[in-house]
């Protein structure tokens, strides 16, 4: 299984970006799909998740109201719409997936860099 992120880049504070994660799966419908990020010198942290089979979404407190996770099961793609970006949103953003919908994620992408300039 491969997860390929795209959509990262350099944006000014207050701007927006939309990240995409394309999965080489027959279908992502039943998969938990999450976004994580890692800032320089910090550990990787959870950002948002969409659970399989219509199980809903969860966000980190730091991104609530600014980020939106969504999925297109027909395209096997998950998105992360990021609005009102701040400098502390800078980092490498990773997509992850697993079929159990709990516990550790089985698959990870290579990441896409997001840099927010103040």
Euclidean distance between termini CA atoms? 37 Å
Give the structural class. Answer: mainly beta
Helix fraction, binned, reads under 10%
Mean pLDDT reading: 96
**Secondary-structure element string:** EEEEEEEEEEE
Q: What is the makeup of the main sheet?
A: 7 strands, mixed
Judging from the principal axes of the Cα atoms, what is the shape? globular
Total beta strands:
11
Radius of gyration: 13 Å
- Our estimate of the beta-strand percent is over 45%
Unreliable runs, pLDDT <50, ≥5 residues?
A: none
Number of helices: 0
Keywords, separated by commas or semicolons:
118 residues; 11 strands; single chain; four-stranded antiparallel beta sheet; mainly beta
What is this structure, in a nutshell?
By secondary structure, the chain is mostly beta strands. 0% of the residues lie in helices and 50% in strands. Strands 2, 4, 5, 6, 9, 10 and 11 form a seven-stranded mixed β-sheet that branches. It has a four-stranded antiparallel β-sheet with strand order 1-3-8-7, with no helix packed on it.
